[in-house]
């Protein structure tokens, strides 16, 4: 195996939640990318762990094979396999991790266990390969909301994080409350187009002066109270509530990001995670970036939500540094983003 290649061919595998995904990259060049989104959870309004592991087991071989078919690449051409080892659902993680271990053993290539949160931070590199740390990242996904000072590979400082619900989680819970579908983020994003964002004003929790932490549970409760107060909720009301709720979340994220920029002095800002797909958030942060003279990077839509391309991209960075994992590396459902942590 050649550890010095600068454009290694990496197979990425992601199975931490409800997406089974595989990608083949040459350096940061995406040669193929397959995402199988498990629809079975829709009728439950959230991810059911046991169903997720079973669906991953069912799909994984086919998804990886499709990734190879799409780029016409052979398994023997792969230099290393990168796979999510946490955080996520235990059963779901194990499916991807065990598959990756088997693949690495069969091909006699290194395994790179990737922290899913770290991979989200680097997703914009798939569009902007020249983007290098240090930068400030606002990571907003279904499970995490944090402001991270990214100094380098496995070298971070978390400047703020959520004290209760994650931003994406609050979109999902609000959508469930309004009975408008799952996952809530994309549904609220679209429905907000037909609503008036100033019709209902929901509270913005900014916590203590200067705090970079987040709290979204109050907003969700405010929506609940508003809905309970009204005797009848029309489709028009739902659109206004969606738009008002989205505006409140975006306002808080914008304010916290501005505080973090001021405190850290960073001029490069990365927006990542599933909620980074939100059009209103991109619009508002884009304006802030313009006013404050910041360079704002966000991944293409397909790399905002969970995907194997970002796992493979992180694998490329580890590969270049010769940082590989042992075959004994475990799945860690509550893996944190900490400097120097085992990926
Ligand atoms: O990053 P991700 O795919 O999974 C986690 O690692 O958590 O994020 C999924 C989250 C879900 O909560 C989903 O509702 C939210 O991202 N999301 C959005 C949008 N697209 C996905 N939230 C707001 N607006 C969107 N357009
Ligand atoms: Zn994710």
Structure explained in plain terms:
The structure is a single chain. The protein is an alpha/beta fold and 343 residues long. The protein folds into 2 domains: 3-126 and 303-321, Nucleotidyltransferase, domain 5, CATH 3.30.420.40; 135-298, ATPase, nucleotide binding domain (Nucleotidyltransferase, domain 5, 2-Layer Sandwich), CATH 3.30.420. Helices cover 40% and strands 19% of the residues. The strands form 2 sheets. The protein has a 5-stranded mixed sheet, with helices on both faces. A hairpin with a 4-residue loop joins strand 1 and strand 2. Helix 1 packs parallel to helix 2 (90-107), helix 3 crosses helix 9 (308-320) and helix 4 runs antiparallel to helix 7 (235-264). The longest helix has 30 residues, at 235-264. The chain is globular. It starts with 8 loop residues before the first strand and ends in a 23-residue tail after the last helix. The model has no long low-confidence stretch (mean pLDDT 94). It binds 5'-O-[(R)-(carboxyoxy)(hydroxy)phosphoryl]adenosine and zinc ion. The site of zinc ion has 4 residues, from helix 3.
Please describe the structure with a list of short key phrases separated by commas or semicolons.
343 residues, alpha/beta, Nucleotidyltransferase, domain 5, 2 domains, five-stranded mixed beta sheet, 19% strand, binds 5'-O-[(R)-(carboxyoxy)(hydroxy)phosphoryl]adenosine
Quick structural gist:
The chain folds into 2 domains: 3-126 and 303-321, ATPase, nucleotide binding domain (Nucleotidyltransferase, domain 5); 135-298, Nucleotidyltransferase, domain 5.
């Amino acid at each position: 195996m050649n550890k010095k290649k600068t454009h290694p061919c990496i197979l990425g595998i992601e199975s931490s939640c409800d997406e089974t995904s595989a990608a083949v990259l040459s350096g940061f060049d995406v040669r193929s990318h397959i995402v199988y989104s498990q629809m079975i959870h829709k009728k439950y309004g959230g991810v059911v762990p046991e169903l997720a592991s079973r669906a991953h087991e069912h799909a994984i071989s086919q998804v990886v094979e499709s990734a190879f078919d799409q780029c016409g690449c052979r398994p023997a051409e792969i230099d290393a396999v990168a796979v999510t080892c946490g955080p996520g659902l235990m059963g779901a993680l194990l499916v991807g991790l065990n598959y990756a271990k088997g693949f690495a053993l069969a091909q006699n290539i290194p395994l790179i266990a990737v922290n899913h949160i770290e991979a989200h931070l680097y997703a914009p590199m798939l569009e902007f390969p020249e983007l290098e740390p240090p930068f400030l990242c606002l990571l907003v996904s279904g499970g995490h909301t944090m402001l991270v000072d990214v100094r380098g590979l496995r070298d971070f400082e978390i400047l703020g994080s959520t004290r209760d619900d994650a931003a994406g989680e609050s979109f999902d819970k609000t959508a469930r409350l309004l009975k408008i579908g799952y996952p809530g983020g994309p549904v609220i994003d679209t429905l907000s187009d037909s609503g008036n964002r100033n019709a209902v004003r929901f509270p913005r929790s900014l916590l203590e002066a200067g705090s970079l932490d987040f709290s979204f549970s109050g907003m969700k409760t405010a929506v609940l109270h508003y809905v309970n107060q009204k005797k009848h909720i029309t489709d028009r009301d739902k659109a206004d509530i969606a738009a008002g709720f989205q505006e409140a979340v975006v306002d808080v994220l914008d304010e916290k990001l501005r505080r973090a920029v001021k405190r850290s002095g960073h001029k490069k800002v990365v927006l990542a995670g599933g909620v980074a797909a939100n059009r209103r958030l991109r619009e508002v942060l884009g304006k802030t970036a313009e006013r404050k003279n910041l360079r704002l990077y966000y991944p293409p839509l397909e790399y905002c939500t969970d995907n194997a391309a970002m796992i493979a991209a992180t694998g490329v960075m580890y590969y270049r540094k010769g940082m590989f994992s042992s075959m004994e590396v475990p799945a860690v459902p509550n893996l944190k983003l900490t400097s120097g942590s085992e990926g």
